[in-house]
Amino acid sequence: MVTFKLEQFAITADRIWQKAREENRLTHNPSDEELRGLVEKQPGVRKTVYGNFVAQSEPTSRSAMFTKNSVDHPFGEDELKLLAQCEEALGQGKIDFHRQNCGQ
Fold this sequence. Notes:
The protein is an alpha+beta fold and 104 residues long. It contains four helices and four strands; from the N terminus they run H-E-H-E-E-H-E-H.
């Protein structure tokens, strides 16, 4: 069995962040004007008569049959593969990161 430490999620996220920053692909804490421009370009987003943006989205609540945790199901090879896929997918293209979305 593969040993999996939960810190690997944070380590992978940090590696993705650093790589994007070094390659100048990271938009971090854009101004409100820049952020509005980014949101406006997203597919399915529309502006209300009051100038706010709205978009229809999928429900985000967790469903037990699709949820795994490390207490009931030890993490291992599948999670390592998932982290590698995330790193590969986020290793290219622009990344927009805003303080209000991520608490920073």
